[in-house]
Design a protein that fits this description.
single chain; 180 residues; mainly alpha; globular
């Protein structure tokens, strides 16, 4: 049974990481991170990542080709770490969300649009992935409960990626710990 859970988690991690990357990049593209104060305190790698995210800006977030940005080593490493800390249930939800927009679970323009403006299609998408979730999960939930869980998960991640688990801040902490 443990082997099935481990393979299920690894199967979900790649598509889940697509959502995590998309959300982190969206957070870093916000005006909050546009100030020069952030750039003074972070490494060169983090500064480059932040600048690329800032270049997107909110309105262009889902219109521009961001494939090179999504393969940024710092971003990928951080999302691998984050995804390893998530529950199997959270990984499944994020994986289903990514796969809804692209069967490969990659970062599609539609996924980026959803992250930038989730309210426009949230209920419809939740309704679609809810049925898949119930088929693949060990605990069946009502649609309303599933929607609330998705809101909590995405809100939690957005808050984390804006504050304490932001790739820029975490990378700065790693750099400081190696130089002390």
């Amino acid at each position: 049974m443990a082997l099935q859970i481990a393979s299920h988690e690894s199967f979900c991690q790649h598509p889940a990481q697509s959502v995590l990357k998309t959300l982190q990049v969206f957070c870093l593209s916000q005006k909050l991170f546009g100030g020069e104060n952030f750039k003074k305190e972070i490494s060169k790698k983090a500064r480059i990542l932040l600048q690329e995210c800032q270049d997107l800006k909110e309105e262009a977030f889902y219109k521009k080709d961001v494939s090179r940005l999504m393969s940024n080593e710092l971003l990928c490493d951080h999302m691998t770490e984050i995804s390893s800390e998530l529950t199997q249930d959270a990984l499944l939800k994020l994986s289903l969300l990514a796969q809804h927009f692209d069967s490969n679970g990659s970062v599609s323009e539609e996924l980026r649009q959803f992250i930038a403006e989730p309210q426009a299609m949230f209920h419809r998408i939740c309704k679609f992935i809810w049925s898949q979730y119930n088929d693949q999960s060990n605990n069946w939930v009502l649609l309303e409960d599933f929607e609330q869980e998705m809101v909590r998960l995405l809100t939690f991640l957005e808050t984390a990626f804006t504050t304490r688990r932001n790739v820029i801040f975490v990378e700065a902490e790693y750099s400081a710990s190696y130089t002390d």
